[in-house]
Design brief:
Mean pLDDT: 82
Distance between the termini: 58 Å
Low-confidence stretches: 1-12, 209-214, 227-236
Strand content: under 5%
Strand order of the largest sheet: 1-2
Order of helices and strands: HHHEHHHHEHHHEHEHHH
Helix content: 40-55%
Structural class: mainly alpha
Length: 346
């Protein structure tokens, strides 16, 4: 905010008559021009426009405006920033700094979304959309429930988990003498070497499979293809339009789940063959304790249980790791179930 005020002041001064006489350019900024730049919001809510937004509305706006970079659940796509997760990791060697785990003030989130997002179309969001997006980001961090509504009237009542995690920056006084003056130029390293592969950033090239291995996979796939195609055609014949609609709904799931041939576990398990299967059975995936407890009690993912879970995951399974808010429309629930059912066990 201070930086913004300094810039605004400089612009006004530059347009003042005294400086205009010296440089022959500029004019005094008009009140409406200053107001257009004066978008800053303080931690106590000063500067907020009137408005409100709830979590479920925020989920829809976020999916439309933000998910392409930040994922449907604010988990981040590729190297775009993660906005959710990282709770209790700030003391770790490699902390995950997100809105929920690190940012001290909710006003920072609101101001940044309002001022700079969505990427390439900044300041195109209405105030109610910004409130809804921020509410959904809070929900994605498990800080509010799905009934939560954020507004200019309730804004100041919400305190972020890391509100007390920042201290006054006094480096100018305490360290200034240490990093000014001539560099010592002694005991410098003579060479630089790579000490770690940046796998965590997903920038290290992966080894490609050999041509022989690829051919073997292709041959196996060709041999199995007739049987698999027959199964899919048999299932799809039930209601192809419903399955097609379900494929669109599944876009909300693709950030965490894969389905079909060559699917792999991601932050969520593969969903191939899930309809009619016992819960917690995907090999190689580490399930949450709440899910495994329900699995031990005999949970089976039939159409009814799947639709109940996908409508309100956190209500169906207390403590679930899945941050998805849920599908509100019965038509979407029926479609996604039909789509998942079109991928039987291999």
């Amino acid at each position: 905010m201070l930086k913004f005020l300094k810039i605004s002041t400089a612009l006004v001064l530059l347009g003042s008559p005294a400086l205009a006489e010296n440089f022959g350019l500029g004019r005094v900024a008009l009140p409406e021009e200053i107001a257009a730049w004066d978008l800053d919001v303080r931690p106590d809510g000063t500067g907020l426009p009137a408005g409100s937004g709830d979590v479920l509305t925020g989920e829809e706006v976020f999916a439309d405006k933000c998910a392409v970079c930040h994922g449907d659940f604010a988990e981040g796509v590729d190297n775009w920033p993660k906005l959710a997760g990282g709770a209790d990791t700030l003391a770790d060697e490699d902390p995950l700094k997100t809105v929920g785990s690190y940012w001290p003030y909710l006003s920072t989130t609101w101001d940044y979304v309002n001022r700079s997002m969505p990427f390439g179309d900044a300041q195109s969001l209405a105030p109610d959309e910004v409130y809804a997006i921020v509410a959904y980001i809070l929900y994605s961090n498990d800080l509010v429930d799905e009934e939560f509504v954020l507004s200019d009237e309730t804004f100041a009542d919400f305190e972020m988990p890391n509100a007390d995690g920042f201290i006054l920056d006094n480096r100018l006084e305490s360290e200034h003498a240490l990093w000014v003056g001539e560099p010592c130029m002694e005991n410098c390293k003579t060479d630089v070497s790579v000490t770690m592969r940046a796998m965590v950033l997903d920038v290290t090239p992966q080894e490609e499979a050999s041509s022989t291995e690829t051919e073997e996979v292709q041959v196996a796939a060709t041999e199995d293809a007739p049987a698999k195609e027959a199964k899919v055609e048999e299932v799809a014949a039930i209601d192809p339009e419903l399955i097609k609609a379900g494929e669109k709904v599944f876009k909300k799931c693709k950030a965490c789940h894969q389905i079909g041939e060559n699917a792999k576990n991601r932050s969520g398990p593969i969903l191939t063959g899930i309809v009619g299967s016992a819960a917690g059975q995907v090999e190689g995936f580490k399930y949450s304790k709440p899910l495994m407890a329900m699995a031990e009690d005999g949970l089976v993912w039939d159409e009814a249980s799947l639709q109940e879970f996908l409508a309100k995951p956190k209500a169906f399974m207390k403590g679930t790791k899945m941050s998805f808010a849920g599908l509100k429309k019965d038509a979407d629930l029926a479609a996604i179930t039909a789509y998942l059912g079109s991928f039987p066990k291999e």
